[in-house]
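For reproducibility, we list the full input for the 8GP complex.
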Amino acid sequence: GAGDRSAKAERMFQLMDGFMTNDPMSLQKDILDHVEYTVARSRFNFDDFEAYQGLSHSVRDRLIERWHDTHQYLKRKDPKRLYFLSLEFLMGRSLSNSVINLGVRDQYADALNQLGFEFEVLAEQEGDAALGNGGLARLSACQMDSLATMDFPAWGYGLRYQYGLFRQVILDGFQHEQPDYWLNFGNPWEIERVHVSYPVKFYGAVEEKVLEGKKCHVWVPGETVEAVAYDNPIPGYGTRNTINLRLWAAKPSDQQDMEAFNTGDYINAVINRQRAETISSLLYPDDRSYQGKELRLKQQYFFVSASLQDIIRRFKDSHSNFDDFPEKVALQLNDTHPSLAIPEVMRVLIDEEYLDWEKAWGIVSKIFSLTIHAVNPEGLEKVPVDLLGSLLPRHLQIIYQINFLFMEELKKHYGLDYNRLSRMSIVEEGAVKNIRMANLSLVCCHTVDGVSRLHLATLKTRVFKDFHEFWPQKFQYKTNGVTQRRWIVVSNPPLSGLISRWLGTDAWIRDMDLLLGLRDHAEDASLQEEWMMVRKVNKIRLSEFIEAMIGMKVSPDAMFDVQIKRIHEYKRQLLNILGIIHRYDCIKNMKESDKEKVVPRVCIIGGKAAPGYEIAKKIIKLCHAVGEKINNDSDIGDLLKLVFIPDYNVSVAELVIPGSDLSQHISTAGHEASGTGSMKFLMNGCLLLATADGSTVEIIEEIGNENMFIFGANVQEVTNLRQNGLGVKKSLQFARVVRMVREGYFGFKDYFKSLCDTVEDSSDFYLLGNDFESYLEAQAEADKAFVDQKKWTKMSILSTAGSGRFSSDRTIRDYAQNTWGIEPCKCPS
Ligand code: 8GP
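The corresponding predicted structure, in tokenized form, follows.
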């Protein structure tokens, strides 16, 4: 009876009374208990990896505690929630980030010391969670950290791929891809929720029925797959709030065809069931290019459908109809990949909740917002109508109906302007009919955001010109940001400590604008000295890493010049390599006495090429071929080294960025939507060599031209150059270095031919030839500045000081106020 229950509750309360304690004794006991009972190793005999497992389970307990409290509290308060839908999250490692955000880093380090372990060593045991490709995916991870830190009631939703982004292995200078089966050794950072699961339907047909005098659509699926939730707690910094990243895994469904089993072919029936799991098996490794593949479309719908069932169930727990849905729910589409959520909400509201079209549309048009990460129209997603119709027959009907009504609206406004109608239509006519996912999203979202000011201008004038004319108020921009928790505090502890000492507070970890305070000390000799020391320590750490990785010794006194990001023609790693060839050529032809004036450089390049992107793979090979030549040339010695860091990922970035002097962000102007790597380097006091592209334009405004090395054609000039035919301004120097590659100076003459063709004569679409001279000038400027270490250090301090605007906290605050309409909801401590 009731008495029993309250006695039980009382007992539970006594047992659970108080939060977990973080004194060294409790932490040690906790870690050892997990080694013994969770990892099932003897507490008298376990290695570093098992210690890491025990440690992370102990941290996980603390995460779970706060995560429960946060959800209890939010349930009671029922604020408007943000649901962030993204097919990619590049989380990297979790241990260091978690203990720092929980505020127990030092306590754990002490506790481990007494057990004879070192925190840093154990942290190195963790592998990266690489459930994403590049910028878009790491941005999602940074934004989750900011949402948690600023107490926003938010959820992330995505897919739990069994294979993350491929591992890059270099053999003879060529990239090879290896599967990243990252779950092999268990994942302590996730919580499997066997009871949180939903059926997701595919294929089949739509039947029309009449129910209570109303026409209804009933979708009879051909296949059903179960989506099971895996929850990943995301702790905020300096707050109890810990939000949830819910990732779905596909499992065979019990609702599946009894028929198959009744026919007697038991073995094949089981094997067919097992195939369901392939839906969440792998991440597509294509960055910024789209192929209309059935499995990819299945992934998109699978994750969207499960997420929406979850979201709607949560809403219905405390609401009896959908009137308040737009006041309680904001759905953010991270690029167009989750845009099937739009017809899916329409379908659920109409077919399952029996709302009429107008009412459902009234809701749908208020809840969705979209961020676009692409620049060129060719990069926008299209899905063949036949494919969509066979996989999701009811959704295709709904999309057609949305388009029909949209076309009617356009006709009222523009009359029968068929060119415009066909450009704006959700359905693309042609040999293969396609659904344009971007157009679908633009019609249905209340807000569309670009990722930098320049990017918004491109969207308005080029990519979505027609839509902008029709709905100017829908278009906004939120310049990207990155989280200083991971990109300074976790990855650069010496700098973090130095900043706090000089500002007299560590409040900048939650309020990056405070970094401006460093400006007053930029010329202070003792700050400069400490600053240089910190940079030196990080450079030594990086050189040790390089030696361990590829067996090459580099001097930490040289300038470390770094370009790390996905390999793309528009990002122009080739420009960098041609510049290095030029530098090599100069040193080679120099009088011995002039060599003293050369600033020694270590050029570092890292990044993955999409497996099918031939030109990008040739760029990687060229980098190795050139490195082979330079690094073994005794005329050159330590004056120039070229290092390719294999298998670039988040944890490699955490090591490389703090140890860099100069970093390159040299895309052809107008091609990089924003760029976020630049922001990480900036925060860490690394100087930028960059074109006026994406967010760089805004970085220049914050720290000033004089503290950066800016070069090359700007967007307007690029447009003009292309209109007037390419390759107008090509220097002899450029011709010379390309010829060296072409004529086999670095070997592999035939293999590099097509690569050389991309930049010569009229085909130099990314304008390497045009920008080469000004690139070399900017590089010479950098050399000059580096010789004067005082000046360089001042520029470095001013870079960090001016980086406050590029915190993802600023981006998220802007989204919360101007796009999502959500407010902080802070769980009491
Ligand atoms: C990237 C943009 O290229 C980059 O400029 C921007 O900073 C970043 O998104 C975050 O906004 N785009 C992608 O990473 C991207 O499109 N990835 C494809 C896998 C979808």
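The pocket of 8GP is lined by residues 133-136, 139, 287-288, 335, 373-374, 451, 480, 672-676, 694 (CB under 6 Å). The chain has a mean pLDDT of 95. Both points were considered when choosing residues for closer inspection.
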